[in-house]
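Tokens for chain A. Residues wanted.
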């Protein structure tokens, strides 16, 4: 069972180093064999983002229905414990959040979680009114935990996540084997002209806790692999479901944790079905 715990709302400097590496079949700790037999998995979940439901000139209803079908099919074939929709559920139309929830997301055959993106124009009160939880919260699954936080305001302006909340959550989960952090907009600009955030305090928090194994982001529809900060801390992306730009395909990311706490993640091209950008942490 997933238990959601809410915490309340600290300062450090810059990045120790930045790596931009190709992700296809790139593995950490390559000397260790990875076991992904379903019966030996502790957790298997998917991340999808950037649905942009309601964007004029796009097939947003078809794209959203396809996402639900793809994830339900994956769950039927391989079992998913959870789906995380990582921001930009709607396109500048917060009034459509109840519609996408009831018409589409509630038809997922697996528990799902959501977090706002910059196009959702949502704050804590709105998110809670639609999804019955706030725009920053945590999830627990045995000895694995998730910390999710908003990275935009109601005008779509990019904002650093609530670092006091993140720190309190990571302190709370210090004894967990694995912690994942979910942020729609990455907290670091790898390239000068990228539309990401520059949140050195957030990055330092990710680097400080050894059980924080990865961060997952949406936002840039062209990114579907992994980038690194510090001593090879991974930030994974998952392409896009909707919108009028991005990768040629539409897809989502799968993460598996086995009984040895080995982590394996790969990108799914849901239109054509190969695995892309496979990584083991």
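Reply:
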């Amino acid at each position: 069972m997933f238990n959601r715990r809410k915490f309340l709302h600290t300062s450090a400097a810059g990045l120790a180093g930045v790596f931009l590496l190709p992700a296809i079949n790139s593995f950490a700790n390559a000397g260790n064999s990875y076991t992904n037999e379903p019966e030996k998995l502790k957790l298997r979940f998917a991340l999808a983002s950037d649905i942009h439901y309601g964007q004029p000139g796009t097939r947003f209803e078809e794209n959203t229905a396809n996402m639900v079908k793809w994830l339900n099919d994956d769950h039927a074939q391989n079992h998913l414990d959870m789906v995380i929709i990582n921001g930009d559920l709607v396109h500048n139309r917060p009034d459509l959040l109840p519609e996408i929830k009831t018409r589409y997301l509630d038809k997922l055959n697996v528990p799902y979680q959501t977090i706002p993106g910059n196009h959702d124009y949502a704050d804590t009160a709105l998110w809670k009114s639609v999804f019955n939880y706030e725009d920053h919260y945590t999830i627990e699954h045995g000895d694995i935990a998730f910390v999710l936080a908003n990275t935009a305001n109601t005008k779509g302006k990019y904002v650093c996540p609530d670092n006091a909340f993140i720190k309190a959550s990571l302190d709370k989960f210090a004894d967990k084997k694995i912690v994942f952090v979910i942020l729609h907009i990455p907290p670091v600009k790898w390239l000068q002209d990228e539309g990401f955030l520059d949140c050195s305090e957030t990055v330092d928090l990710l680097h400080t806790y050894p059980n924080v194994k990865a961060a997952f982001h949406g936002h840039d529809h062209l990114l579907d692999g992994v980038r690194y900060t510090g001593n090879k801390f991974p930030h994974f992306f998952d392409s896009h479901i909707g919108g009028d730009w991005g990768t040629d395909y539409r897809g989502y990311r799968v993460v598996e944790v086995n009984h040895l706490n080995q982590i394996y993640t790969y990108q799914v091209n849901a239109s054509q079905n190969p695995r892309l950008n496979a990584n083991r942490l």
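The domain at 3-27+55-280 is CATH 3.60.21.10 (Purple Acid Phosphatase; chain A, domain 2). The two ends are 25 Å apart (CA to CA).
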